[in-house]
Write a structure and sequence with these properties.
about 110 residues, mainly alpha, about 70% helix
Length: about 110
Amino acid sequence: MVRRTGARAAAGGSSRSSQASSTSNRASRAWSASAFERARLKADMPHVNFHDLRHSCASILVGLGVDLYTVSKILGHSNTQTTQRYAHLQIGQQRNALNKLSDAVRKSR
C-alpha cells in the first residue's frame, strides 16, 4: 500500500507524479539559471542578478503607469502589499490625480 502525505494526498495526487514534477521543475530552474548566467556574462554584467531584473521590470511598469495590482500579479506576489515598495515611483500619477481633483473643484464653483 502506498501512503500519501501532504497536499497532493489531500487532492488525490500520487507521490510519483509529484516527484516527477519536482524533478522537472528543478531541471527547468537549472536551465533558466544557466541561460541567465550565459546572457549575463555575454553582456559583461557579472554583478547583475535575477532579482535585479524583477525589480527593474516592476519599476519600469510602474513608471509607465501600470497599476500596482497588475504589477503584483505579473511579479507573482500573493499579497499586493509586497508590491507597495514601488508606490513611490508613481509621483507623476499622483500629481495627475491631484490635478484632476483641482480641476473638478474649480469647475464646481
